[in-house]
């Protein structure tokens, strides 16, 4: 546990010798590591301390004395305050190169493995890409207005007042300030802590969490806002199961995944606004193409898709193989995955509900022989599953990861314990302008 001390206000000079995995510059000052927000590798800066800890300190840039050649002007005017992005001041090529370096370091340090081949990084449009997220809401009496935005970078207890967001889906990105105006005129202004947004291909959904029942006046205001701007409006009076549409009566959220191959039809997935979907629609298309290339599904293959969610990978795989089975821990997602399979006419897909962080080796699907596996776990990774899978019959595994450390750990397990070779790996820029590292790897049997 860290121990904070009093923080001096006198600025100090620092030379940035590294870029941390969270996007902050790293310096050594008087023999102690200092993480400096807003600083880039190679820069000489003036900084001021924000927090002291036993083994490191935290600081922020006051002035850049010698700038990195890779420094660029942030596009968003809220960049210095908002926690939504941390790397807008770093050029795009260096951002993705930094993420590839982070992945390589994790493979070497944690997994003790190195890919035989490094895949070219996948990149898509870096602006207006975010189709899902959560906005915080705070009615600040001292300022006499409502704040709608992401949490502040330097103080997560506070909300950044933003008028528009450059990385948010354009249907909403230019209208964040209008949400503040809307809420400022509502009776429930103090009872709405957050707004979640989710965009399908045809409509943007807004989910208003409210702690008290809404008045008829407030319901009418939200409906009118949705009608005026083309948003589907949902209400959430309680837990996630309480979410229901206010307007229109039956909105339809869906997105299409192009097959990229004339032999196979596209897939369309319907979803609910709080369901997990890949945040970046453009990158999801590119990721799908790469996953199919690496998995190399054949007409006779039996494929197991673990942490399958809505069937984002399961259904495109199903178009190409003899049989595919998806396993997911959330019952609602499994139900909608099965419905999506039926809606797309994919009859060879099966789905099971199972907590993959518990031992499932007694389950029927876990006992069966699978030619190939696809894994897309959350940040914790898949080490629990890898205690009993894959079986000897499995000859190829594609692993999609949102956390390089857990991928590296699991890569070590697959190589050392199960006899696989890490054939190829690379990063995918799912979250441009952030330090988040999304990656993909393929493992093949060594013998």
Summarize the structure.
It catalyses: uridine(1939) in 23S rRNA + S-adenosyl-L-methionine = 5-methyluridine(1939) in 23S rRNA + S-adenosyl-L-homocysteine + H(+). This protein has 447 residues and is of the alpha/beta class. It is 22% helix and 28% strand.
Could you walk me through the main structural features you see in this protein, from its secondary elements to its overall organization?
The protein has 447 residues and is of the alpha/beta class. The chain has 3 domains: 12-71, Beta Barrel (OB fold (Dihydrolipoamide Acetyltransferase, E2P)); 96-125 and 279-444, Vaccinia Virus protein VP39 (Rossmann fold); 132-199 and 203-247, Beta Barrel (OB fold (Dihydrolipoamide Acetyltransferase, E2P)), CATH 2.40.50. Helices cover 22% and strands 28% of the residues. The chain has 9 helices and 22 strands. The chain has an 8-stranded mixed beta sheet, sandwiched between helices. A 6-stranded mixed beta sheet has the order 1-5-6-4-3-2, with no helix packed on it. Strand 16 (302-306), helix 6 and strand 17 form a beta-alpha-beta unit. Helix 1 (92-111) crosses helix 9 (404-416). The longest helix is centred in the first third of the chain and has 20 residues, at 92-111. The radius of gyration is 24 Å and the shape is globular. It starts with 11 loop residues before the first strand and ends with a strand. S-adenosyl-L-methionine binds at residues 278, 307, 312, 328, 355, 376. Residues 5-63 form the TRAM domain. It catalyses: uridine(1939) in 23S rRNA + S-adenosyl-L-methionine = 5-methyluridine(1939) in 23S rRNA + S-adenosyl-L-homocysteine + H(+). Keywords: 4Fe-4S, Iron, Iron-sulfur, Metal-binding, Methyltransferase, rRNA processing, S-adenosyl-L-methionine, Transferase. Belongs to the class I-like SAM-binding methyltransferase superfamily. RNA M5U methyltransferase family. RlmD subfamily.
């Amino acid at each position: 546990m860290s121990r904070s001390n009093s923080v001096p206000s006198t600025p100090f000079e620092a030379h940035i010798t590294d870029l941390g995995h969270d996007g902050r510059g790293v310096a050594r000052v008087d023999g102690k590591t200092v993480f400096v927000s807003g600083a880039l590798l190679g820069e000489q800066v003036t900084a001021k301390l924000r927090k002291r800890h036993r083994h490191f300190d935290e600081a922020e840039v006051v002035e850049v004395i010698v700038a990195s050649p890779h420094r660029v002007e942030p596009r968003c005017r809220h960049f210095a305050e908002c926690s939504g992005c941390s790397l807008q001041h770093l050029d795009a090529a260096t951002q993705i190169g930094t993420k590839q370096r982070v992945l390589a370091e994790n493979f070497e340090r944690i997994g003790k493995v190195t890919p035989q081949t490094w895949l070219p990084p996948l990149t898509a449009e870096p602006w207006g890409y975010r189709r899902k997220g959560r906005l915080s809401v705070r009615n600040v009496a001292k300022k006499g207005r409502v704040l709608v935005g992401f949490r502040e970078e330097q103080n997560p207890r506070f909300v950044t007042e933003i008028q528009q967001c450059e990385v948010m889906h354009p249907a909403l990105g230019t209208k964040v300030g209008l949400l503040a105006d809307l809420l400022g005129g509502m009776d429930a202004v103090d009872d709405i802590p957050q707004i979640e947004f989710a965009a399908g291909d045809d409509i943007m959904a807004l989910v208003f969490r409210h702690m008290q029942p809404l008045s008829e006046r407030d319901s009418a205001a939200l409906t009118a806002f949705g009608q005026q701007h083309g948003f589907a409006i949902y209400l959430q009076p309680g837990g996630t199961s309480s979410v229901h549409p206010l307007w229109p009566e039956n909105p339809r959220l869906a997105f299409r995944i192009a097959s990229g191959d004339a032999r196979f039809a596209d897939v369309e997935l319907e979803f609910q606004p709080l369901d997990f979907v890949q945040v970046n629609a453009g990158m999801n298309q590119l990721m799908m193409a790469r996953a199919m290339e690496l998995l190399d599904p054949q007409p006779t293959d039996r494929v197991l898709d673990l942490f399958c969610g809505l069937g984002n990978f399961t259904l495109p795989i199903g178009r190409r193989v003899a049989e595919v089975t998806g396993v997911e821990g959330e019952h609602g997602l499994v139900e909608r995955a099965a419905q999506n399979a039926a809606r797309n006419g994919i009859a060879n897909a099966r789905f099971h509900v199972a907590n993959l962080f518990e031992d499932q080796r007694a389950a029927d699907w876990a006992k069966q022989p699978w030619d190939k596996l696809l894994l897309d776990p959350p940040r914790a990774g898949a080490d629990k599953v890898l205690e009993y899978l894959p079986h000897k019959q499995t000859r190829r595994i594609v692993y999609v990861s949102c956390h390089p450390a857990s991928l590296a750990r699991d890569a070590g397990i697959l190589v050392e314990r199960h006899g696989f070779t890490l054939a190829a790996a690379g990063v995918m820029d799912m979250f441009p302008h952030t330090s988040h590292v999304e990656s993909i790897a393929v493992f093949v049997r060594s013998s």
